[in-house]
Write a structure and sequence with these properties.
Blueprint lengths: L1 E9 L4 E10 L4 E5 L6 H8 L7 E5 L6 E4 L11 H6 L3 H19 L6 H19 L5 H11 L16 H15 L3 E5 L7 H13 L3 E5 L3 H7 L2 E6 L2 E5 L3 H36 L6 H13 L28 E10 L2 E11 L4 E6 L5 H8 L6 E6 L5 E4 L13 H6 L10 H7 L16 H13 L5 E5 L7 H13 L3 E5 L3 H4 L5 E6 L2 E6 L2 H5 L2 H11 L2 H10 L11 H39 L2 H4 L2 H34 L3
Parallel strand pairs: 3-7, 3-8, 5-6, 6-7, 12-16, 12-17, 14-15, 15-16
Antiparallel strand pairs: 1-2, 1-4, 8-9, 10-11, 10-13, 17-18
Length: 650
């Protein structure tokens, strides 16, 4: 589908990457990985032709459509949410206008026997059939399904986009791209503005899609659930691992060990050659051997190795006074803005040493309650902060509070105490401020870089209550690992607002879910909450709002109502979904193998010897028939899966 050969990109003396060659095939789910600055976003821009490479070829068939979601884009605020999403179907709107114009002509004209009239009838018939084949009559329902899947309520769809935050407007842009159904999806950090429920819906969407996907993400759970292939940009090269991310991590570790051994052997060879040259440089009897060694040194291509992985670096919060037994107690706490009630009757008791997560859809009040705890905004009810509580708070706007006149190194040096001052460079390196980056002034840092610096600063302050509001948004995976290990080793209390399942997994022991103005407590980790009857019940309730009920009734009047559906029934249906997904995955693997074999046989049949070889011809025919059968089976399984998922509203 997309073929890349000999790609080279230069922005300075050293190329960003060179000699990159790979192919993006149908149904490929590719994770594009590499350290920050390696060129991942640049690669996506080149694939969608927004940027030209220094050299190399990117071949894309003319009929291949590409959908690209950048990290940042210019957003318009002059329409409603629904109208903005309708722009994805602009070609359908134009087609409908043409059909209406032709229909009007047919009604007005009376020359029924003329050639022009018959040609008009023929054009109208063909265009109308094409219009129906594209499903153009159902696009309104598809718009609502996609927007609701990404977290919008039905009554949000008529609101102006200007009333929504940048994160919600990015969701609208993602919805537009998905509605266009491009052949290749290029996604740059698509989960940054999604909550857990929306991420799960998005994973299901991509799992059912037959399109190719190339994505950049620091959400490990998301890329593990979505991708089946990993492209790594490292040391200016692009390495293709035909495995998902977790398997890639193990293979990469083995590859790096091989690199280190090869590097050490090469360094020994260079050192031995230099020692020989130095020792016999002025001896006439060894002149020939010395010249040979010099020529050997000149021909040696230095082996590059990946930068040292600092994810194993262990940070520990400095000691702090022991807090009271209950650092945070909320009794009947509520918050409203005019007529809009954010939440009410919140009763929370957080014990010393607990690590808890605040989860729920965006806009349900997670950050608002955090601000109430920090006494930044007024609230109803009683909210008590315990004895000797020292709070370390990381807000989403924390980066704005840094001193812009200081360098990165000085910012951390001012808060570091004791032996940790000897490890400042290691700590900065773990958070992508290694080398010359540490000498940058804060005022020239990007928003993401400032957030990372604020996080390091917080890690070195003596506190006994950590409150972190979306701490992982600007961290890569190694940095997240460092932060997670530091919080796990922290002997104080932690409140974490996050949608990153992998980050929360094994870190928190209690989950507070914000839903519909209420806060529900659930004991257990993040995946226990996701699989819990409580969460399933919340999803059912959300799926049966009045608007969604109307849509579902129109589409399928015999559908079982989510409100009355028993938990056991839903559980049985989910088992069927898992079984179907497994069968679909196995079928896809068979189809991929057969397609590869057919491609190989095609090459053989193109030769005179192969074309006359009946064994090859017979194998080609039988393989083609098997492929058709497997493709038909895949279609049936996919349709069955979609019907079940529609029935249980997932």
């Amino acid at each position: 589908m997309i073929s890349v050969e000999g790609l080279r990109v230069e922005f300075g003396v050293k190329p960003l990457f060179s000699g990159a060659s790979f192919v993006v095939n149908d149904r490929d789910r590719i994770a594009l990985v590499g350290k920050n600055g390696a060129g991942k976003s640049t690669m996506l821009k080149i694939l969608c032709r927004l940027q030209l490479p220094t050299s190399g070829v990117v071949s894309i068939p003319t009929d291949t459509t590409i959908g690209y979601l950048p990290q940042v884009m210019k957003l318009q605020d002059d329409t409603t949410v629904r109208e903005e999403a309708r722009k994805a179907f602009s070609h359908n709107t134009e087609m409908k206008a043409r059909l209406e114009n032709m229909n009007r002509q047919l009604a007005e004209r009376s020359d029924y026997e003329s050639r022009e009239y018959m040609e008009l009838v023929q054009r109208y018939t063909e265009e109308h059939e094409r219009y129906l084949m594209l499903g153009a009559e159902n696009y309104e329902a598809e718009i609502e399904r996609t927007l609701c899947g990404l977290g919008f309520r039905r009554n949000d769809l008529e609101r102006p986009t200007s009333e929504f935050s940048g994160g919600w407007r990015m969701r609208i842009e993602l919805a537009k791209i998905l509605l266009q159904k491009p052949d290749v999806l290029l996604l740059d950090e698509p989960t940054n503005h999604l909550d857990i429920e929306s991420i799960q819906w998005f994973e299901q969407y991509l799992a059912q899609s037959t399109k190719a996907v190339v994505l950049v993400s620091h959400d490990r759970a998301f890329i593990n659930n979505v991708t089946n292939r990993t492209l790594e940009i490292s040391c200016g090269n692009v390495i293709d691992y035909k495995v998902r991310y977790d398997e890639y991590v193990m293979l990469r570790s083995e590859r790096r060990e091989q690199q280190l051994r090869a590097y050490e052997n090469q360094q020994k060879e260079i050192a031995d050659a230099k020692a020989f040259i130095e020792r016999f440089r002025y001896q006439a009897t060894k002149a020939v051997q010395v010249q040979q060694k010099i020529r050997q040194l000149e021909k040696i291509v230095p082996i590059e190795i990946d930068e040292i992985d600092n994810s194993a670096l262990h940070l520990k919060f400095p000691p702090c006074l022991r807090s009271g037994d209950y650092p945070v107690i909320c009794e009947e706490v509520g918050k409203s803005y005019g007529d809009h009630k954010v939440f009410s009757n919140v009763n929370i008791t957080i014990k010393r040493g607990e690590k808890v997560a605040f989860v729920g859809k965006n806009g349900e009040g997670k950050s608002t309650l955090v601000k109430c705890i920090m006494n930044e905004i007024r609230h109803d009810g009683m909210l008590k902060i315990g004895h000797n509580v020292e709070i370390g708070y990381f807000a989403q706007n924390q980066a704005q509070l840094l001193d812009e006149s200081l360098t990165v190194f000085d910012t951390i040096d001012h808060v570091a105490r004791g032996p940790v001052r000897l490890r400042i460079n290691d700590i900065l390196g773990a958070f992508m401020f290694g080398g010359e980056e540490s000498e940058k002034r804060v005022k020239v840092l990007s928003g993401g870089e400032r957030s990372r610096l604020a996080m390091i600063k917080l890690l070195l302050e003596p506190v006994n209550l950590l409150i972190l509001d979306e701490p992982t948004n600007h961290l890569d995976m190694p940095s997240k690992d460092v932060l997670k290990e530091a919080i796990k080793a922290f002997d104080g209390t932690a409140i974490i607002v996050s949608h990153d399942r992998e980050f929360l997994d094994g870190l928190v022991s209690k989950v507070y879910e914000f839903e519909g103005g209420k806060v529900k407590e659930y004991l257990g980790g993040i995946y226990d909450w996701i699989k819990s009857p409580i969460q399933a019940e919340c999803q059912e309730t959300a799926a049966t709002t009045e608007g969604n009920k109307n849509i579902n009734d129109k589409e399928n009047p015999n559908k079982v109502s989510s409100a009355t559906m028993s938990y056991q029934y839903r559980k049985d249906m989910m088992k069927r979904v898992s079984r179907l997904q497994k069968n679909i995955k196995e079928t896809e693997a068979k189809i991929e193998k057969m397609e590869e074999r057919i491609n190989d046989l095609d090459k053989v049949l193109c030769t005179p010897e192969g074309a006359s070889d009946m064994t090859v011809v017979t194998e080609y025919t039988s393989t083609k028939k098997l492929l058709d059968n497997e493709t038909e089976r895949w279609t049936q399984l996919s349709m069955e899966l979609e019907e079940i998922q529609n029935e249980i509203n997932i």
